[in-house]
Structures are given as C-alpha cells and as structure tokens.
Amino acid sequence: MLTGAENGEATPADPYTRSGYLFADCSYKDLLEVPVGLPSNVFAVSLAGNKIKVLKSKSFINITQVTALWLEDNEIVTIERGTLAPLTQLFNMDISHNKIVNFPWEDLVNLTALRTLKMNNNEMVNLPMDCLSKCTAGSWWSCGAGPECQTLPLLKIKLILLSNREVKNP
Question: Would the keyword Repeat be found if you checked this record's keyword annotation (predicted)?
Fold first, then answer.
C-alpha cells in the first residue's frame, strides 16, 4: 500500500502526479531499504535522506521505466552488481553523499539514456579506465569533494564537475 495507512499516517512512498507523470517521494522517511510495491509506471523516485546501506540486485526490478532516481544523502556502501542494469530509461541519477567504495560500472552498459550521474562525496578512490565509456557525449558527470576522482580517465563527456579535487590521468 502506497497512498497512506488506514490511520492516516504516510507510508514509505506517497506517489503523486506532477505534470502528468507519477512521482514517488520516499525521501526523508528513515527507510533502511528501497520500498517494495512502487508502481511500475513511476517516472521518478526520490529516496534521498534515508538510511539505506545496500542497494540489492532486485531493488528496482519492478520499476524499469523510471527516468530519475535520487539516492543522495543515504548511507549506501554497496550497490550489488545488476542493480542498475534494468533501468534502461534512466536519464538522471544522484548517488552523491553516500559511502560507496565500489560502483557496478558494468551496469551502465545498457543505460544509454543516462545523461546526468552525480556521485560526488563517496569513498571511491580509483576509477577504472573505461568506467564511463558507455556514457554518451551529452552526459554530465559530477565527482568532487571526495577521494573518488584521484585517478580519472579522459572521457568524451560534455561537462565534468570536479570540485575540490586533485585529478590524475594515468
């Protein structure tokens, strides 16, 4: 149930329509995991400001049409391989301000719609040379104020925001 409990209290996600698109606002609800039962036709999901530590491989399996996913300001340490792969319509993703050490870069292979990836303020130190090779020329990538960009490959990306970072290109 997503629209409200019988006693009137809000449940983990309160979907509503904005400009004709279904938006699930699950932000700042002290969630420990991605809630199950989100509508399959949801356009955008905000899980910002929760206490999520792990994104499991089946976390988003039923919301594959989502185009915007905001997971900033959680406690995410692990994103299991395959978690993001089904999100082929994903256009905008924010996983900044978490504790991510390893990111499942191979999940980006089918995310050809991805244009904005914000991942600053995490714990990543070195990025693989081909980490963003599947991103298109119009992509925007934010990586700063954390150790994640100490080694950064040259990329064909329109804009890279590297705030407060010393960057080395091997």
Answer: yes
